[in-house]
Design goal:
The protein is α/β, with parallel strands linked by helices. The protein contains 6 helices and 3 strands.
Length: 169
């Protein structure tokens, strides 16, 4: 899945399939759910994004729509398979400092990327973007017995950015 800007009127229709790549989520479940059913248990963790829940100021409508679909797929499938001992959940990362987010600053100049990072971090309630390990820890929790009663859930890992006004602290 790519996150190139996608203004509705400028998206090449043939490129939509790459962006709306729910095939990977569906295919994973298509392959593993029968195995999990036979063993009477299992956990699936899908990956979404806060762009599914809130406009982040960038024209990534296809990506955001695809991630919203991942969340709804996870909720529906989680309900459908709960009685079979299978839990399906999603992690919903916010602004994590990764190369993908850094590239949203779209500049070759280090000082421009640093300005982008400071502006972005200003809008995160704790004042700093998270890291990949923060999302990984959420996924590990959802896979653990500590989360045995959690299914069909989208766990937002975003330091409250989806609840914040976006004006900084």
């Amino acid at each position: 899945m790519h996150t190139l800007p996608s203004i509705i009127t400028e998206v090449a229709l043939r490129g939509i399939d790459r962006t709306y790549h729910l095939h990977s989520v569906f295919r994973l479940c298509h392959e593993v759910l029968p195995v999990m059913e036979r063993q009477g248990s299992g956990v699936v963790i899908n990956n979404a994004s806060i762009t599914a829940m809130r406009y982040i100021g960038k024209p990534h409508i296809a990506y955001a729509s695809a991630k919203a679909a991942v969340i709804q797929f996870t909720k529906a499938a989680g309900c459908m398979y709960a009685s079979k001992g299978i839990r399906l959940n999603a992690v919903v990362p916010g602004l994590m400092f990764t190369p993908l987010v850094e590239n949203l600053g779209a500049s070759d100049k280090e000082e421009d990327r640093e300005v982008f990072r400071k502006i972005t971090e200003h809008n995160v309630p704790m004042g700093a973007m998270g890291e990949s390990i923060d999302v990984a820890n959420a996924a590990v929790f959802l896979c653990s017995n500590a989360a045995k009663y959690i299914t069909a859930h989208a766990l937002v890992v975003d330091d409250g950015i989806t609840a914040a006004t976006g004006t900084g602290s």
